[in-house]
Amino acid sequence: MIQRKHSDYFERLTQDIAKFFAALIGKNIDSVEEELDQAYHEWLKLDRKSLDALNSEELLSTLLKEMNLDVEHIELVAEIFANEGELYFNKNQYFKSKSKLQNALNLFEFVDQEKQIFSFERQSDLQKIKKLIAKINLNYKNGNIKNDLR
Predict the structure, then answer these.
(1) What is the mean pLDDT of the chain?
(2) pTM of the full predicted structure?
(3) Is the CB of residue 103 less than 8 Å from the CB of residue 56?
């Protein structure tokens, strides 16, 4: 019974996150950034800017060892990163997008390994992330995307 309550909490939080990102579409990037900072703090008690400064290995280590997050919380962080990466992709901020998507990919792969339970939703998220990263890489390789300095 306790496991179900725990699961329900994460399910509701995931739904709230989806609604939040849907509301961000169409807003200017400055207000999006402010709302993302607030969301990270409110949902996860994490400082978004500190997390952005970490590479993938440091990120996972920090989430596990310093912040003592469990696999459920790490999956939630991965979902937020994936949504944020897609949002930046849609706003043509490819450098930020790739960084967020790569971190999401690494976190999802960790969650996949730790949970050892197949999830169609997680696999779908992984494929979507990989496709977006591939588009960014292909476009940078072909010179179709100018330097993204934003």
Answers:
(1) 80
(2) 0.75
(3) yes
